Amino acid sequence: MEKRLIKKETLAGIVGELAGKMRICAPMKAEDQVLFRILEAGEKPLVDFANAKNAPKNFLFPRTETLLKFTRTGKGMVRAGEPEEGVKTLLFGVRPCDARSFTLLDMLFDQEKYKDPYYIDKREKTTIVALACVHPPYTTCFCTSVGGTPVDSVGVDLLLTDLGEEYLAEFITPKGEELLPAFGGSPAGEEAEKAKEGIAAKAAEEIASHIPAHEIKPILDTHFEDPFWNTLHQKCLACGTCTYLCPTCHCFDISDEVKRDDGIRIRNWDSCMFPMFTKETSGHNPRSSQKERWRQRVMHKFRYYPDNFNAIACVGCGRCVMACPVNLDIRKIVTDIAKI
Ligand code: SF4
Ligand code: SF4
Questions:
Q1: Are residue 190 and residue 249 in the same domain, yes or no?
Q2: What is the C-alpha to C-alpha distance for residues 328 and 234, in angstroms, rounded to an integer?
Q3: 223 and 137 share a domain?
Q4: Are residues 256 and 298 in the same domain?
Q5: 249 CB less than 6 Å from ligand 1?
Q6: Residue 243 pLDDT > 80, yes or no?
Q7: Residues 6+ apart with CB under 8 A from 85
Q8: Do 191 and 153 belong together in one domain?
Q9: Ligand 1 contacts CB of residue 24 (under 6 A)
Q10: Would the pTM count as exceeding 0.85?
Q11: For 40, which DSSP code?
């Protein structure tokens, strides 16, 4: 693996320069928030920030996406155009937890039996450049409890670690190596690697939240009807914020929008927190109460995903904890389940 040292003051400029040549999505200031968005030519991304409010999943799995276009004729519907193809994209400034979330989405959208061509097309055309969390940004971060670390390279093509004066740039995959000419830098030696090891150990120690995420699956397996579920949901407003901000949540709904004879088939993010989410055409709703919906959210992440893919569907980013308007905290819920 090629490793280089890149002067800190040059990084934003390198990415800004690339923005004129390819599509770059990066964290940018938006009033009092930091959000991922597409850079204009020459625009420099933020390099000094905690984490973006929105997860970068939108660029591989858009909030609204056209799947196909059609026209109604006297003989039925005919295809009237293909959806736009994915564009070669560099996703810059992704934190290690969010980079790992893409590997969890891969398990679902790119499995042997079921392949989602829309997601796969974008995934193949996207290069992930991550910024390691030298100091984990929030007290709500808990990546180390769900299999990650603040300097994790899982799902990353190029990992940048702030060593003080320079970034250690690790070109991990062939996609990452394609960026070598643009990022340049000088060869990194053993000293830089040792410095990174020290930073990694310190960063992991700085993680303040620890939860027994790997211990609860056997409890969930046998406590579907436990009284615990009777009260958990009570203050939930069913707003869906937790699922929309979550980098691993991926439920969607498909609908047709038709004007006269022309239509598009679109898919939109959906949320297991919404009452209509599982409503069937007959009118029956198998998850008719918020209790059942909250149980589903926990089961999906900590029981069904481990069953299906041998992985917990949470990367410990803490977004849902920070954004929930009524302070429902997934860390407390997991901890309480472990006590059942
Ligand atoms: S963000 Fe909080 S209130 Fe909104 S749906 Fe999620 S748990 Fe419920
Ligand atoms: S469940 Fe919450 S902490 Fe876990 S990945 Fe989703 S938003 Fe982040």
A1: no
A2: 10
A3: no
A4: yes
A5: no
A6: yes
A7: 121
A8: yes
A9: no
A10: yes
A11: P
Closest C-alpha residue for ligand 1 atom 4: 239
Q: What is the DSSP string of 77-130?
A: EEEEEPPPPP--EEEEEE-HHHHHHHHHHHHHHB-SS-B-HHHHHHHHTEEEEE
Q: How confident is the model at residue 158 (pLDDT cuts 50, 70, 90)?
A: very high
- Which residue is closest in CA terms to ligand 2's atom 5? 314
Inter-residue contact 158 to 183 (CB < 8 Å) = yes
Same domain, 36 and 136: yes
pLDDT per residue over 159-184, tens digit each? 999 999 999 999 999 999 999 999 99
Assess whether pLDDT exceeds 80 at residue 83. Answer: no
How many domains in the chain?
A: 2
Ligand 1 contacts CB of residue 275 (under 6 A): no
* Beta bridge partner(s), residue 171: 2, 158
Last residue of a domain, one of 182, 210, 238: 210
What are the pocket residues of ligand 2 if the criterion is a CB atom closer than 6 Å to any ligand atom?
245-248, 314-320, 330
Q: Look at the alpha carbons of 295, 301, 306, 308 in this order and tell me if their dihedral is positive or negative.
A: positive
3-state SS class at 330: helix
Q: Which of 154, 181, 210 is the last residue of a domain?
A: 210
Residues contacting residue 207 through CB under 8 Å, at least 6 positions apart:
136, 141, 142, 143, 144, 150
Per-residue pLDDT tens for 90-143? 999 999 999 999 999 999 999 999 999 999 999 999 999 999 999 998 999 999
Asked whether the predicted pLDDT for residue 82 surpasses 80, the reply is no
**Quick one: which atom of ligand 2 is closest to the CA of 97?**
5
Other beta carbons within 10 angstroms of residue 129's beta carbon come to 26
CA of 34 to the centre of ligand 2 (A): 18
Mean per-residue pLDDT for 288-306?
96
pLDDT of residue 77: 81
Distance 136 CA to ligand 2 centre (A): 15
- Same domain, yes or no, for 271 and 297? yes
> Residue 281 belongs to what domain range?
214-338
Of all ligands present, the nearest one to the C-alpha of 242 is 1
For residues 147 and 241, membership in a common domain is answered with no
Same domain, 104 and 244: no
